[in-house]
Specification:
Layout (H helix, E strand, L loop, with lengths): L2 H7 L16 E5 L8 E4 L13 E6 L2 E11 L14 E2 L8 H13 L4 H7 L3 H4 L9 E6 L14 H12 L3 E3 H11 L7 H6 L3 E6 L17 H11 L6 E7 L5 H14 L3 E5 L6 H12 L3 E4 L5 H12 L5 E4 L11 E7 L16 H12 L2 E6 L4 H8 L4 E5 L10 E6 L5 E2 L2 E2 H12 L3 E5 L8 E4 L16 E3 L4 E3 L6 E3 L12 E4 L3 H11 L5 E4 L9 H11 L4 E4 L12 E6 L13 H13 L10 E6 L5 H25 L6 E9 L2 H16 L6 E14 L2 E10 L2 H17 L7 E6 L6
Parallel strand pairs: 9-14, 9-15, 10-12, 10-13, 11-12, 13-14, 16-28, 19-26, 19-27, 25-26, 27-28
Antiparallel strand pairs: 1-2, 1-4, 3-4, 3-5, 6-7, 6-8, 17-18, 20-24, 21-22, 22-23, 29-31, 29-32, 30-31
Helix pairs in contact: 2-12, 8-9, 9-10, 17-18, 19-20
Length: 757
Amino acid sequence: MNPLHAGVCGFQVTPSRAAAMNKRTIIQVAVPAPLYTTFDYLLSASEQAVPAVGCRVKVPFGRRSMIGVVTGNSDSSSIDPKRLKKLQQVLDDAPVLPGEILDLLIWTARYYQHPPGEVISTALPALLRLGKPAEMRGRLLWRLADSNTDAEVPLRRAPKQLQLYRLLQQHNGELDEERLRALELETGVNLRSSIKPLLEKDLLIQREQPCLPAAVTETETGPGLNDEQLAIVNAIEDDLTQYQAHLLHGITGSGKTEVYMMLAQKVLAAGKQVLVLAPEIGLTPQLTDRFRRRLGVRIAELHSGLNDSQRLCAWCAAACGEARLLIGTRSAIFTPMPDLGLIIIDEEHDGSYKQQDNLRYNARDLALVRARQKGIPVVLGSATPALESLHNAWRGHYRLHHLTKRAVADKPPRIELVDLCRQQMDEGISATLQQHIGSHLQQSGQVLLFLNRRGFSPVLMCHACGWTQSCQRCDAHMTYHRGKRLLRCHHCGAETPLPPACPDCGDEELISLGAGTERIEQALAAKYPQYRIERIDRDSTRRKGVLQSKLDSAQSGAAHILVGTQMLAKGHDFPNVTLVGILDTDQGLYSGDFRAAEHLAQLITQVAGRAGRARKAGEVLIQTHHPDHPLLQTLLHQGYEGFARAALAEREQVGFPPYRHLALLRCDAIKVEAGVEFMQAARALLAQAETSGVDVFGPVPAPMEKRAGRYRTQLMLQSTERKPLHRLIQPWLQALQQLKSACRVRWSLDIDPYDTY
């Protein structure tokens, strides 16, 4: 076994520090600080060997200690050795970050122009960043050794031990760490201190459950591949031993996941590991369940729904090779996998792959970089590929594969535009759509209504004077949430109680304008009281487990009407849905964001694809006041690829990605003058630099200038080639750090911004 694998899994290892016999004692360490460099340290007197690259070390940094990662060593330093501080502690005998992951992280830091220490820290689970050992610790479980009540006799003089003993009895004689922690919070008693005495008295048994679920022993057989699926699997199988990007463009319901599983099966059979990325936490459980039932290997999950111990377990299991398949959201791209043989990116178009704060990386793009460095294939799958991905495929950079037939249904759903002009509306639902809803419900069909707007209504207005409630901290109206009787800003989260009367004129008639998912749900409940309605949006699924419960209800058909936001549009399989109603497309037709048309086309296509997926005829109704809009007409008559070609032609004319590359400097400040001063100084620095091949636009206020109490300004750089853009940015960033005005603002640079808002 590779010492790296053993070290990460927590086994005893022989120190594998390659430089143990080397006299080089200057250790280069990446520290999680906002500085674009690594730092030199000396070996402490107690250290006899040089820590290997990729090991964690504890170092003094300023007035505190920090956990850093060794990136190299040397026999000299640009700093006087007398001024260098010493390592405080070497935390690992073997590297926790192997060379290939460090290479990826260093590439990431350079490309996204981000401090290397912060980038490397991002790749580590929280417990490793705190200095905890890289061990696969299972969940501790305590069970009563004897349920006889006579066992309480020796505990009468130990009230805390007796309390824990009785709590165990109340919980079927068994408690795990999570439940014990919850009971400690409820009772305010340190119950953990009573565990050891009970163990010593043989009243309690302690065991450790494996932190990674066991593999399924009896796997399921797949439905069999159709001709298109089989041809794609065979074509990609030819590239399994080399780097190649494959774009799998399959219409909704065409069986992309079956292709993923067949490819994964072949890679696993060859003794390799597989990494599957999903855009959001809501998609990982169903993906994991399908892969686990089919492949019969140990599978790890990595996403924000796990606690720190669970994340460390999954990370270590993948890093030591115990987990043969890892399914995770964007940060999983940095997980060590020594035998990695295939990367799959599901819903590759999704904006969730782009991190929008701190290190602003795109996991989809980094998957391509990692696959190239490793020399393995990467599969990007979507019913609505990103325009950049289609552009790369049409230029020959990716191999393009099509799935044009639904795997189960006879034909795709029928799509119809509903012209809302002069049509009677009832709470945002047209008479035409209402008629179809009633018809489908009577035929035992399931109905899905999509509206990408939470709350009851986006605007609350006084009927007498026209007053509306605006957010005091943002340039936006506050959304009315009727169920909680409050107004909430969906940009900064600010809340205020529902006023009893107009604050301006005192009139009590306050009217709500427009509809959100909460209003649609209420209207449907009044109209169809005999049917079960499930609303699925961020407000209705905040509590743990609620989202999965609602999705289970939708997939089983127990819920007759589904109302929700884009949470319903992403990859879910609702076999009983026969009617999809898209309630409002107009809000996306005239947005100023250069990706707005692409996002709308993707949403319409993805939501429409929820209908008619199990040999049941599907129907899609799209409500709009602009049925003749070119985007809708192109999408309706030429499909998504036809729309993509038209949209790319527009992008080329105006000079947006993928034809030009962008970098966006953003800043925000409490006072607008501070942001303007910084941005003008930033623009002045560019005027002194060589900007050949790079166009500079701004500074200008952000489309939403005021957000969360801060005024936002931005400056954009555009270039046809990446090299001149990055050549300009590197020294510019260093100069920006030296500006006096920089300390009065928060600023960041976004390479390849996903949006300009």
